[in-house]
Design brief:
Helix content: 10-25%
Number of strands: 6
Number of helices: 3
Strand order of the largest sheet: 3-4-5-6
Strand content: 35-45%
Number of domains: 1
Length: about 100
Amino acid sequence: MRRMLGGVCLLLALAAHAGGGTLRVGSQVLVVGDSATRVVELLGKPSHRAHAKSAAGAASKKGGKSHRPSSPSDAGEQWQYRHGDRVITIVVADGKVSAIRDGGR
């Protein structure tokens, strides 16, 4: 019960991220390049996981060409966390955070 309460308090302590590559979680900061393990330590298990595909990979399966170069934040796995009316998405590729997106208010 205490662990659950602590997790809820941690999620309530989430603040808006300072930049595109950082997310403040209580007194800790998650940054691009941190490990997937660090994400779980700070945020817990995601409410939703989805496999992301690069723009080039998606276009080639349809037989077309992508006009947008693929970037590290396009591929990997997207981990979503809900905090109030926001959805925070952490993109994890090769076991490391490659992007942090905060769907702010």
